[in-house]
Amino acid sequence: MTQSIINSTIKPFKATAFHKGEFVPVTEQDLLGKWSVVFFYPADFTFVCPTELGDMADHYAKLQSMGVEVYSVSTDTHFTHKAWHDTSDTIKKISFPMVGDPTGTISHNFGVMIEEEGLALRGTFVINPEGQIKVAEIHDLGIGRSASELLRKIQAAQYVATHDGEVCPAKWQPGEETLAPSLDLVGKI
C-alpha cells in the first residue's frame, strides 16, 4: 500500500503543451495561485479519450468562471496533440493546454503511469492554489469520466477551503446545506 497523494504538494516538472495553436512551456509553477485540474488520459487518437476531452471542453467555460485551469496530459508529445487537434472535430473544441509527457515524468509524479505500456491511467487531480492535491480519482482505461461530476467535486473543494469547520455531504450542490462536524452530530445523521 502506498501513501495517499491527498494533501501532498505537486512535484516539479517541465513539459511542453499545445495550447491555442502554439507550443508553450508548462511547469508545476503554472498550477500555483489558482485552482487546477490535471486530467490524465492514455493516448491521442483513441476511443474513450476524445469523449472525455470533449466533455471537459464543453464544461471549460464554467470551470474558467470558477477560477479553474485544466491541463490534459498524456504520454504523447505536444506534436501529436497538435496533429490530433488539427484532425478531430471533437478535439478542436479544446482550448485548455494539452500537455505532452513523453518521458512519463508527470505521470510518475501523480502515480498514474502504466509502466509496461508507457501510458497513463485515467487520472483526475484537483489542485488548490497552494499546490496541494485535494481530489484524486484514478481508474481503469475502459471507464470514461464525467466533467459534470468533477465540477461538483471542485465546487465542494472550493467551498470547504473557504468555510472553515464545514464539510459537504454526499451529492452536495452549491447553495445546499453543509455540515459542521461536532459531538452533537454523532449518530444523528
TrEMBL record:
EC number, as in UniProt: 1.11.1.26
UniProt subcellular location: Cytoplasm
Q: Which InterPro entries match?
A: AhpC, AhpC/TSA, Peroxiredoxin, Peroxiredoxin_AhpC-typ, Peroxiredoxin_C, Thioredoxin-like_sf, Thioredoxin_domain
Task: Give the catalytic activity.
Answer: a hydroperoxide + NADH + H(+) = an alcohol + NAD(+) + H2O
PROSITE patterns, sorted: THIOREDOXIN_2
Q: Which domain of life is it from?
A: Bacteria
Q: What does this protein do?
A: Thiol-specific peroxidase that catalyzes the reduction of hydrogen peroxide and organic hydroperoxides to water and alcohols, respectively. Plays a role in cell protection against oxidative stress by detoxifying peroxides.
Among PANTHER family, the record links this protein to: ALKYL HYDROPEROXIDE REDUCTASE C, THIOREDOXIN PEROXIDASE
Its quaternary organisation is: Homodimer; disulfide-linked, upon oxidation. 5 homodimers assemble to form a ring-like decamer.
Q: Which family does it belong to?
A: Belongs to the peroxiredoxin family. AhpC/Prx1 subfamily.
Protein name, entry field: Alkyl hydroperoxide reductase C
Query: What gene does this protein come from?
Result: ahpC
